[in-house]
């Protein structure tokens, strides 16, 4: 009897707990449903297009990411009658962080597209995320490997900066035209440098120039004397320095200090005012292939990108001070401009926040034709997710501490 | 390789090595007195150089605001930790150090634009700002845990390093800076082109080594530092102010770091995070000296500089690998040759 009583008690207690549990579960779920309803109510009231950004505003690539973050306030705020909301996260130039940022933006914010990231390694990792989650991504990094060769995975990936090989060809052609027979390359000792080494080797071979020395250095090196002596010993007709931002100034300063007088080329990764400030007079006469945006004011009025680029430069410098504009921020602006054109097309087929809309947005991006942006004119196709032609590059020479367009 | 290249590489290596040597001295000093492996040592280089660059541009360097904040924080910490010591004259001294001095520097940077006073004024101002940060950082981050194990102190040092690097990015931005050269003259010796700036670097290193020697052997403060370094517990038992020793060591470390920073700023581009790698190479020099001997550290650091210079000529791609791989045989040799003494905890 006693045993039964106990058992009854136990049964009752479990039952009670169960009831309590059930009660709380019901209460909780009601709450959850209410919250969700409230959220969706808000969503329905202002159906907006959400675009995520994962960019490198800290870490080694911060000089690429910070101008992007500064440009966000200049991005279009609506397209096709819908509001656009830009959500920005920092990936600290780190691949794992970039991937988790992208997943977070997609899972928690339900974004319709992602812009990012600033560097090639992170962008390559995002290709996987883009194809898996079926969300269109627009990278603002420079390596052609992000969108080439076009395959099923890269179908969701787009890219706004000019391909490295476009710039490498421009340099090699210019060297050949000015009569150089031999050249040396000084570049970073990382994957960025590896990419440039491969591109320059190919481009120089095509132009009939012999690569006589290849030297590597690190972004934070305080001296490159050893490398520069080796380059000078090889006596090349021209030296190409492939590095991004102010670190590109050190090898050039050392080359000039050690008496190297022949032409020096830089790549489009140096196109900001800080580079001119740090390099000073040692940069005079340097050739730099870059997007037309850098010398927008000097472009002929017939150039379709001139007005757009000038508008961006003006609005950026109004906000962040004179001389603050960099080409890196403009790449993100271009991504935003492409989205502004593609969103109205996609809106005809689906509502924002749905998988159908994301697919429609991707298709719309792929069929953009003759869209002028700050760096050139974009003609996308199924195989070309960059869309730039030769109008997206100009050769610039540094004169009196300023960028001057070479006609 | 011909003699010219050999000489140029030696010269480049010695100049870089001299900077590593300065930092190695600071690392050993801090370690000996406080047992802290002071990872953020390199940050003082970046702070010193970039503060100078900003003053030269005619801007107010944000480091001076950081200094004021750190000063207030360390005043609060001091009053909270040892209210008894900080009464009467003690309190006056504390307030002079933590509140008045930073505000004085703030007023100087804001109200007395340096351009009219020339380079020396800017240099002294930058070095003063960064030097004062040293003791404040010690008070805020380390004084409370001064008796903890070396590992705990190292972890705290890593925390300080991360905080300072983050602040550096926020203050100075991602791009680097260069300052104007102290002397534009240079001396041509055959193929060797000896710049005035590199003479300054070598000269300052020599003077500092001599000054440190005199400080430790001739002054009371120096002797207290040595006593604290030799036996912390014993020093405390005989009534030596070991907390003050810690702060002096940090001030010296910050001073040396800032000085190294303003010295190399005209030679190379300095970034917000440049200091860390320079600090690591200095650390190799300090390790060669077993974190004990100042002269051996200087020799070791200059050796690191020379090897770095030569490896960047022979095989630039593997330069860092070569330099850091050096650690392995040196550590092996040290651990077999020196008598192992258990650390008193």
Automatic annotation (TrEMBL), chain B:
<keyword id="KW-0472">Membrane</keyword>
<keyword id="KW-1133">Transmembrane helix</keyword>
<comment type="similarity">
    <text>Belongs to the binding-protein-dependent transport system permease family. LivHM subfamily.</text>
</comment>
<feature type="transmembrane region" description="Helical">
    <location>
        <begin position="192"/>
        <end position="216"/>
    </location>
</feature>
<dbReference type="GO" id="GO:0022857">
    <property type="term" value="F:transmembrane transporter activity"/>
</dbReference>
<feature type="transmembrane region" description="Helical">
    <location>
        <begin position="18"/>
        <end position="38"/>
    </location>
</feature>
<feature type="transmembrane region" description="Helical">
    <location>
        <begin position="88"/>
        <end position="112"/>
    </location>
</feature>
<keyword id="KW-0029">Amino-acid transport</keyword>
<keyword id="KW-1003">Cell membrane</keyword>
<feature type="transmembrane region" description="Helical">
    <location>
        <begin position="248"/>
        <end position="266"/>
    </location>
</feature>
<protein>
    <submittedName>
        <fullName>Branched-chain amino acid ABC transporter permease</fullName>
    </submittedName>
</protein>
<feature type="transmembrane region" description="Helical">
    <location>
        <begin position="118"/>
        <end position="138"/>
    </location>
</feature>
<keyword id="KW-0813">Transport</keyword>
<dbReference type="GO" id="GO:0006865">
    <property type="term" value="P:amino acid transport"/>
</dbReference>
<dbReference type="InterPro" id="IPR001851">
    <property type="entry name" value="ABC_transp_permease"/>
</dbReference>
<feature type="transmembrane region" description="Helical">
    <location>
        <begin position="64"/>
        <end position="81"/>
    </location>
</feature>
<feature type="transmembrane region" description="Helical">
    <location>
        <begin position="278"/>
        <end position="306"/>
    </location>
</feature>
<dbReference type="InterPro" id="IPR052157">
    <property type="entry name" value="BCAA_transport_permease"/>
</dbReference>
<feature type="transmembrane region" description="Helical">
    <location>
        <begin position="150"/>
        <end position="172"/>
    </location>
</feature>
<dbReference type="GO" id="GO:0005886">
    <property type="term" value="C:plasma membrane"/>
</dbReference>
<keyword id="KW-0812">Transmembrane</keyword>
<dbReference type="Pfam" id="PF02653">
    <property type="entry name" value="BPD_transp_2"/>
</dbReference>
């Amino acid at each position: 009897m006693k045993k039964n009583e106990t058992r009854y008690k136990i049964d009752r207690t479990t039952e009670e707990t169960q009831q309590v549990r059930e009660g709380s579960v019901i209460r909780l779920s009601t709450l959850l449903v209410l919250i969700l309803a409230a959220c969706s109510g808000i969503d329905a009231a202002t159906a907006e297009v959400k675009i995520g950004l994962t960019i490198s505003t800290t870490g080694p690539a911060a000089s690429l990411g910070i101008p992007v973050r500064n440009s966000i306030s200049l991005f279009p705020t609506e397209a096709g009658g819908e509001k656009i909301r830009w959500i920005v996260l920092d990936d600290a130039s780190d691949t794992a962080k970039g991937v988790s940022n992208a997943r977070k933006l997609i899972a928690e914010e339900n974004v319709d597209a992602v812009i990012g990231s600033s560097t090639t390694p992170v962008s390559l990792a995002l290709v996987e995320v883009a194809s898996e989650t079926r969300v269109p991504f627009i990278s603002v990094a420079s390596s052609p490997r992000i969108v080439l060769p076009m395959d099923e995975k890269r179908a969701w990936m787009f890219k706004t900066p000019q391909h490295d090989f476009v710039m490498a060809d421009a340099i090699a052609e210019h060297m050949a035209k000015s009569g150089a027979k031999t050249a040396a390359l000084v570049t970073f000792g990382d994957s960025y440098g590896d990419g440039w080494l491969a591109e320059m080797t190919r481009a120089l071979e095509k132009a009939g120039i012999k690569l006589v020395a290849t030297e590597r250095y690190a972004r934070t090196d305080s001296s490159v004397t050893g490398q520069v002596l080796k380059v000078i010993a090889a006596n090349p007709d021209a030296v190409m320095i492939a590095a991004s931002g102010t670190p590109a100034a050190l090898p050039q300063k050392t080359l000039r200090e050690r008496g190297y007088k022949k032409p020096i080329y830089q790549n489009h990764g140096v196109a900001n005012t800080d580079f001119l400030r740090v390099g000073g007079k040692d940069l005079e006469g340097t050739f730099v292939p870059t997007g037309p945006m850098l010398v927008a004011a000097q472009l002929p009025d017939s150039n379709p990108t001139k007005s757009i680029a000038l508008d961006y430069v003006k609005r950026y410098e109004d906000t962040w001070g004179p001389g603050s504009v960099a080409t890196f921020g403009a790449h993100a602006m271009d991504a935003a401009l492409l989205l502004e054109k593609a969103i109205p097309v996609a809106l005809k087929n689906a509502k924002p926040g749905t998988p159908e809309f994301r697919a429609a947005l991707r298709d719309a991006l792929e069929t953009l034709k003759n869209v002028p942006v700050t760096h050139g004119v974009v003609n996308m196709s199924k195989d070309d997710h960059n869309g730039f032609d030769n109008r997206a590059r100009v050769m610039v020479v540094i004169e009196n501490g300023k960028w001057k367009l070479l006609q | 390789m011909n003699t010219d290249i050999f000489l140029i590489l030696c010269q480049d290596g010695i100049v870089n090595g001299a900077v590593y040597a300065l930092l190695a001295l600071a690392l050993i000093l801090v370690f000996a007195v406080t047992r802290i492996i002071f990872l953020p040592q390199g940050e003082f280089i970046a702070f010193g150089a970039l503060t100078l660059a900003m003053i030269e541009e005619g801007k107010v360097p944000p480091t001076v605001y950081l200094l004021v904040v750190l000063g207030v924080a360390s005043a609060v910490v001091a009053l909270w930790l040892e209210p008894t010591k900080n009464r009467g004259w003690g309190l006056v001294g504390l307030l002079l150090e933590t509140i008045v001095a930073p505000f004085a520097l703030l007023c100087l940077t804001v109200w007395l634009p340096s351009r009219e006073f020339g380079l020396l004024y800017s240099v002294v101002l930058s070095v003063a700002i960064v030097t004062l940060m040293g003791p404040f950082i010690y008070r805020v981050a380390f004084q409370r845990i001064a008796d903890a194990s070396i590992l705990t102190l190292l972890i705290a040092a890593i925390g300080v390093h991360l905080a300072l690097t983050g602040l550096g990015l926020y203050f100075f931005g991602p791009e680097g800076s260069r300052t104007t050269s102290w002397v534009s003259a240079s001396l041509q010796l055959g193929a060797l082109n000896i710049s005035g700036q590199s003479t300054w670097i070598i000269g300052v290193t020599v003077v500092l080594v001599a000054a440190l020697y005199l400080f430790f052997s001739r002054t009371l403060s120096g002797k207290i530092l040595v006593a604290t370094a030799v036996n912390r517990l014993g020093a405390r038992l005989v009534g030596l102010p070991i907390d003050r020793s810690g702060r002096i060591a940090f001030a010296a470390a910050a001073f040396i770091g800032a000085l190294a920073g303003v010295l190399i700023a005209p030679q190379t581009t300095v970034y917000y995070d440049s200091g860390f790698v320079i600090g690591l190479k200095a650390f190799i020099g300090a390790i060669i000296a077993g974190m004990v001997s100042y002269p051996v550290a200087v020799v070791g650091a200059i050796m690191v500089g020379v090897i770095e210079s030569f490896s960047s000529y022979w095989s630039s791609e593997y330069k860092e690998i070569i330099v850091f791989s050096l650690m392995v045989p040196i550590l092996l040799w040290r651990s077999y040759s020196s008598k192992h003494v258990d650390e008193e905890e």
